[in-house]
Design a protein that fits this description.
Pathway: Lipid metabolism; fatty acid beta-oxidation
Subcellular location: Peroxisome
Catalytic activity: a (3S)-3-hydroxyacyl-CoA + NAD(+) = a 3-oxoacyl-CoA + NADH + H(+)
Bound molecules: 3-hydroxybutanoyl-coenzyme A
Subunit structure: Monomer.
CATH topology of the largest domain: 2-enoyl-CoA Hydratase, Chain A, domain 1
Distance between the termini: 29 Å
Number of strands: 19
Oligomer: single chain
Low-confidence stretches: none
Number of helices: 29
CATH class of the largest domain: Alpha Beta
Keywords: Fatty acid metabolism, Isomerase, Lipid degradation, Lipid metabolism, Lyase, Multifunctional enzyme, NAD, Oxidoreductase, Peroxisome
Helix content: 40-55%
């Protein structure tokens, strides 16, 4: 097999090229090739300098994640980077695309780094539950300084080449042909001695304040809560300031191995591939071409319609937004502008970008204006009759080939499609609120949705930076459908003796951003309520009847102060107690384990049903939905991956133990089968 690493001489510069598509991951063959190239450089007197660069879209984007968990193949990445640094001729890294993780560690081991301005440099290992394990935690603070190294390693976001240049991480920014300029740069530095060696630099370590690390921990406490890896990244950078390089590297190795053998990094690596897998549509060939989307129409300028529109405007796609009344239209576009301006105030957009985005918006009261749109998304309230009326009209207005989408969260897409003469052009695009921020998009595939409509939706999602998951037509699709058993059980648990705070705490301790009752208060307790205060059939009706509609009213399952901080409500407790008495339910101590079994295990059971009915393409898609749509902690890998870790027999046993308290509960056959055979949902 030919090596992905090739070398050629350009005068007295040895050019080392990696060609390992798609992202030049540092697999075994690449590592072997790099070591051989350094041997070649040292062994050839006519070579005065070396340039390492990559073909294709990017510089090395990191270690090869597919090798993790398999027996190690020599040479290890730490050996490779040490070998590069030990080369007796100057080695220049020529960076384009993304120098990430092990890729940045290779660059750090080089004596010099040059980069194109569009390049990005980063250590995203923390997002895989890891830390840079090839000397990166020790070299990065020495080269770029401790504060930036902390941000990059524990935070995991890449920085742009310009910032890297200002920090000393990049020695020169290259305009024009990267390789040509990198070779010229190598000539410039070929006789400079001593060689700049990252691992021996000390000057940037000396200037560090003792409080830097604790300040950083405090500033990021919320963001890092529950995760193991950020703290270990911090400890490694701290070790760089306290210990000689060789000792620091030992700390790095030890902490890396601890993380690598832990469940969190397994979950996060699993999720990396789950997210990419979600983009693949079963049963649709690679040759299916997407339809062109040059203008999007949105019906409804409420919270959802406005948020949805912003996604397209931000991606440079013009939007025609339609409302029925001028004041609603003005209010909607006003909110969009305010949202953009708030982002600009935080420094994340320029004033010019705000105007650019808003300049792409065409607000109108005329539904016929949608005739020029390639995709029309209906985002009015949840009422089948209203939606049918809109789609009937759209059928007469939309141009041939336009995609007609509904943002419904629950309703049947096939029923909506059936009122048109073009059901093949109809699809569900279920955005999550706030739609301009949440990353998840459920793409609901109707019985007749055409393959190229699906392909278009998935590609468009990427263009607007969403992660899309294909769902089938069922009540609540994937995400909201799984909320139903959780909500049912959570309410029942209140009757049996749990408090809203206890149920919520089990969920937040698990790592969810909020529990079922906090979520109800945020979303609105009145959503789906029959709106008759005289008809009080359950706890929810009772709350709604006395205006406890959630945070928006300052009261729901909790009381809220002016800063929207919740406290348990004696009024709610009285309502619960009254219902308990009325229904003759006996109050008892509810254990946290029971709450897990009745809420989380029932969700797992529901997801197994979703899978067995073919409403999700694969188990990992369900995990993507819950992680991006509802904040399931990524370090637990989503409900399916988590269930596998718990053990499916244990889940089944737990559910059986609770079954008599859950009269409406029915087992998923798939869950029972898999538990019986000791199989898993995910790999
Ligand atoms: N190892 C193996 N495969 C990888 C990979 C990696 N490090 N990075 C990406 N891939 C694969 C993806 O799975 C995908 O495969 P598919 O086409 O079969 O689904 C393909 O490459 C293309 O990836 P994307 O779809 O993500 O392409 P984009 O162009 O959108 O993004 C990227 C490119 C920014 C490089 C992105 O892939 C990425 O962030 N990759 C991961 C980077 C990373 O985490 N590096 C650190 C690795 S850990 C490490 O280095 C440990 C060391 O410190 C010891």
């Amino acid at each position: 097999m030919t090596s992905p690493i090739s070398t050629r001489k350009h005068g007295d510069v040895l050019i080392v090229t990696s060609n390992n598509p798609p992202v030049n991951a540092l697999g075994a063959a690449v590592r072997q090739g790099l070591v051989a190239a350094m041997e070649q450089a040292d062994g050839d007197d006519s070579v005065k300098a070396v340039v390492i660069h990559c073909d294709g879209q990017t510089f090395f984007a990191g270690a090869d994640i597919t090798e993790f968990g398999k027996p190690p193949v020599s040479p290890w990445l730490p050996e490779v980077v040490d070998r590069i640094e030990a080369t007796t001729k100057p080695v220049v890294a020529a960076i384009h695309g993304t120098a990430l993780g092990g890729g940045l560690e290779v660059a750090l081991a080089c004596h010099y780094r040059v980069a194109v301005p569009s390049a990005k440099l980063g250590t995203p290992e923390v997002k895989l539950g890891l830390l840079p394990g090839a000397g990166g935690t020790q070299r990065l603070p020495r080269v770029a300084g401790v504060p930036l190294a902390l941000e990059m390693t524990a935070g995991g976001n890449p920085i742009g080449a310009k910032q890297a240049y200002e920090a000393g991480l990049v020695d020169r920014l290259i305009e024009g042909d990267l390789l040509e300029h990198a070779v010229a740069y190598a000539h410039e530095v070929e006789s400079v001695r001593p060689l700049p060696i990252s691992s021996t630099k000390q000057d940037k370590l000396a200037a560090v304040e003792a409080s830097t690390f604790d300040d950083f921990r405090k500033a990021n406490a919320r963001k890092f809560k529950g995760f193991d890896a950020p703290e270990k990244n911090i400890q490694c950078v701290e070790a760089a300031t306290r210990l000689p390089y060789a000792e620091g590297v030992k700390t790095e190795r030890q902490l890396f191995m601890e993380l690598m053998s832990g469940g969190q990094s397994r979950a996060q690596q699993y999720f990396f591939f789950a997210e990419r897998q979600a983009a693949k549509i079963e049963g649709v060939g690679k040759d299916v071409q997407p339809r062109a989307i040059n203008r999007v129409g949105v019906i409804g300028a409420g919270t959802m319609g406005g948020g949805i529109s912003m996604n397209f405007l931000s991606a440079g796609i013009p939007v025609t937004i339609v409302e029925m009344q001028q004041d609603a239209l003005d209010r909607g576009t006003g909110v969009m502008r305010k949202n953009y301006e708030a982002t600009a105030a935080k420094g994340r957009l320029t004033g010019e970008q705000v105007e650019q985005a808003m300049g792409l918006l065409n607000p109108t009261l005329d539904l016929n204006a949608l005739g020029e749109c390639d995709l029309i998304i209906e985002a009015v309230y949840e009422n089948m009759d209203v939606k049918k009326e809109i789609f009937t009209k759209l059928d007469g207005i939309a141009k041939p080939g336009a995609i007609l989408a509904s943002n419904t969260s629950y309703l049947n897409i096939d029923e909506i499609a059936a009122v048109t003469k073009r059901p093949e052009d109809v699809v569900g695009l279920h955005f999550f609120s706030p739609a301009n921020i949440m990353k998840l998009l459920e793409v609901v595939r109707g019985a007749k949705t055409a393959p190229d409509v699906l392909v278009t939706a998935m590609q468009l999602a990427k263009r607007i930076r969403k992660v899309a998951v294909v769902a089938g037509v069922c009540y609540g699709f994937i995400g909201n459908r799984m909320l139903i058993p959780r909500q049912t059980q959570a309410m029942q648990l209140l009757l049996e003796g749990a408090t809203p705070a206890q149920v919520d705490k089990v969920h937040t301790d698990f790592g969810m951003p909020m529990g079922p009752f906090q979520m109800a208060d945020l979303a609105g307790v009145d959503i789906g309520w029959h709106r008759d205060p005289g008809r009080v059939e359950n706890i929810r009706d009772a709350l709604c009847a006395i205006d406890r509609w959630g945070q928006k009213k300052g009261a729901g399952f909790y009381d809220y102060d002016e800063k929207r901080r919740p406290t348990p409500s004696p009024v709610v407790q009285q309502i619960i107690d009254d219902f308990r008495a009325k229904q003759g339910v006996e109050k008892r101590e509810i254990s946290d384990q029971e709450i897990v079994e009745r809420t989380l295990y029932t969700m797992v059971n529901e997801s197994a049903k979703i899978l067995e009915e073919g409403m999700a393409q694969r188990a990992s898609d369900i995990d993507v939905v819950w992680i991006y749509g509802y904040g399931w902690p990524v370090y637990r890998g989503g409900p399916m991956h988590w269930a596998d870790g718990e053990g499916l027999p244990k889940i089944v046993e737990g559910l059986k133990a609770q079954q008599e308290r859950m009269p409406d509960f029915t087992f998923s056959k798939l869950l029972l089968d898999k538990a019986e055979k000791k199989e898993k949902f995910t790999r």
